[in-house]
Amino acid sequence: MRKFLGLLVISTFLVLAACGGSGDASGNKERETVTIGYFPNLNHAPAMVAKQKEMYQDHLGENVTVEYQTFPDGSTFMKALAAGEIQGGLVGPGPAINSFISGVDVQIIGASSTGGTVIVSRDGSGIKSWEDVEGKTFISPRVGCTHDVQFETYMKEKGITSERIGGSMKHVTGEPARYQSLFEKGDVDVATAPEPWASVMEAKVDANVVIPTSDVSFGETLPAAVMVTSDVMIENNSEQVQKLVDAHKKAVQYINDNPNEAIDITIEGIADITDQQLKKSVMENAWERTNFTYEVDADVIQEFGNSSHDLQFLKEKPDFEGFVNKSFIQ
């Protein structure tokens, strides 16, 4: 089925290319547009740095117009990728896995960061450790998203599960940028928070760290965000994909070489999207919990997928053959 869908999309792409042509009557090459997607989270900082420093534009060249689109969650990102609205970008491994298994033509071509997932509780909830979470309400960006799987894997190993699979924890979803207001209203007790939102809530609403990044399942090994593109892009525009990856690698290196300036760029990038101006001290705290790298470990992706199956987010144990493509980051 995946192969059939891939061929159908590729055939459509080729037909459209033939109808549209690659230049005008005088032979001048038309400008292409490449749209890159990402989220307003710290683990997507490489996209914000590459945007601000025009790294994608520099690598793709003057005949390409680079545009950007931001998303509140991985599901909407993956729908945009499948529809050809974006050509690639950064997304959590959870949504990428779910889409791959569902037949969407997507490949992981690199990582963005590891770490950065923190489980925090609302001040006044009485929750100080994982033992206190039973029967409480927790929030994640989406059901079965990366942060949800990390949290539920950890809790299941402790003998506590969500109502979805017969347990006691209640589960709601929402954008991480809204977690603070939900804590203030008392609507949720626990948040699976990607940075910098965990640090924001620690600073502004006295949220308690229940499970730190170092302890949550896959916390320091799983890519918090991965760089993905479609099979169509790889098969028809492999040189362009390589340029995207090269720009991404340059952004990651810049972050590691210039953390202070990278923090400023990320604060500005998040403010542009969420209208929230984060304090530098908050971002510095979040930065300590995050490791920026473009290297991706296929074995960890498989372990994470197996855990998603164990939690019944996936009906079958996943087969990730052809999913992780490391040829562009070598």
From TrEMBL:
Pfam family, one: NMT1_2
Compartments reported by the entry: Cell inner membrane; Periplasm
Signal peptide start and end residues: 1-17
Protein keywords: Cell inner membrane, Cell membrane, Membrane, Signal, Transport
UniProt-recorded Gene Ontology molecular function terms: ATPase-coupled transmembrane transporter activity
Gene3D superfamilies: Periplasmic binding protein-like II
Keyword check for Signal: yes
InterPro entries: ABC_SsuA_sub-bd, NrtA/CpmA_ABC-bd_dom
Chief location of this protein within or outside the cell: membrane
Keyword Electron transport: no
One GO CC term on file: periplasmic space
Family in the record: Belongs to the bacterial solute-binding protein SsuA/TauA family.
Protein name (record): ABC transporter substrate-binding protein
Protein's organism: Lentibacillus kapialis
Record lineage: Bacteria, Bacillati, Bacillota, Bacilli, Bacillales
